[in-house]
Every structure is written in structure tokens, then in C-alpha cells.
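Review form for a predicted model. The reviewer records the input and the model, then writes brief findings.
Reviewer: anonymous (R2)
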Amino acid sequence: MHIASSRKNYCRLLAVLAIVGLGYSGTALADPIPVGWTCSGSCGTLGANGVVPLSPIGTSSYEYVTTYGSSSTAPLPSGALGGETNGSTLATPIFSATAGTALNFYFNYVTSDGAGYADYAWAELFSSTNTPVALLFTARTEPSGSIVPGTGLPDPTATLIPSSVPIISGAPTWSPLGDSSGTCWSSGCGYTGWVNSNYTIAAAGNYYLEVGVTNWDDEAYDTGLALDGVTVGGNPIGPSPTPEPSTLILLGSALVGGASAIKRRLLR
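Model under review:
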């Protein structure tokens, strides 16, 4: 039987068990993104949660995008693979920069999807007229080795620290993954830890940074990207709120969590 059919049939069986025997109730809660930022899909602000601690810059929260709960699409603007399904984007306010200005931030890629259904995330710099300027990085599920650049996706133009970005393997527990938190499909699941992205803006102008994350080939098993410490020339972009972090109401056991994740996929 084809692997996609096997995956769907297995999901349907567990979904029936979950609905009949266990039931499900879950609500996603998230603090708002900073004033002036723009979200399409599912985004939020969160404190240390699961496998994603606070970033190295020492703020009390970070922003994130996730495929969970999003009916939007978020294919990579410059070089989409084809086969992208649902996803989310998060954009900063427009900022001004002179030639040679440094654009810096931290990211942490988290995925519950693995081999054969490789989701991906990306960060891209745009002009204020929505023209792509630089694809800073792509991150895509890999069974081993660096996940930047993602397989089939362009090389990064930003300098990353560390330069090799492997997955810390395992079923990642992280609230923005919703039903997929604590689950894993095949090899390649996990998270990267915080990675520093550094890029030098070549020409003076007005710009914004956008990050995105997308499911690929299907909508099963979700993926997200945490973002923090966006600075231009060493100055933070926009306000720097420190909200009280919210959490998602997650299931109390691995069995219920896995079954409810399958139920959501059945209804897609």
C-alpha cells in the first residue's frame, strides 16, 4: 500500500478510537503579536515553552508562526517547491536602513513532520513595495545533517551561527504545534535550538522582514518557527512588549494527544 494511503488509514482508525472512547477538547490561546507586525494564518507571542526556551538575547517572550490552525497558504515567495498546502507568515513593520546596515535575529525551527512529507520555513527581506530583496534562509525537514538550506530550496544569503543547523531529533513538545505537539511522523522530527541569522543590507531603502512556515504535500503533522531579537543596525524593530505568556490547552496523555492529532487530519 502507498505510504500516503497507509498514513491516512492509520489516522482514520485512531481518530475513531479517539472520538468514541476518549473525546477531545482543545483551545489555542496566544498573546498578540507586537503592534505594527502583520500575521497571515496562525501567529503569536509566547514565553519559554516545551523544547523552545527563551532566546539568548534574554527577552521574556518570542514571536512564532505555525501551520497549526491555519487555513492560509504560505509558499516561499522566491522559489516555492510546489505542493505547499496550509501555512502562516509574520512580517515586521517597515523600517529604513542605509547601505551596510546589519539585520540580525534568532530563529528556532520546530517540526513534527518527517521523511516523505518535508515541511519548511523561510525568512526573506522585502522592499516596502513588496519586492523580494534577499532570501535569508530556508529550513526543511531532513532525517540527518543540516536542515539549512532545505532540500530543493535555495542556499541562504544570511550568515548563520552555527553554520550547520541539524535537527535535535525526537517528537517535539511545543504548544504552537497544537495537536501535533509531542508527536512525530517518521525520521526528521525535532527542533534546531536558537540559531542566529546575520545579513548586511546592500542598499539604502525601506524594507520589512517576513518569515513563513508551510506544510508540504498534506496538512498532517504541523511545523513552526520561533523568532526573536530582530534588530536593524542594533536597534529593535517596533515596540518591545513583554506580555505574560499564554499556553495552549494540551491533552493530558500521549495517547490522547496522538489520537486527537489524527482526528484533526481526518477532518482536513
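Findings: Confidence is low (pLDDT under 50) at residues 1-29, 240-268.
Further findings: The chain has two domains: 1-26+251-268, 29-250.
Recommendation: see findings above.
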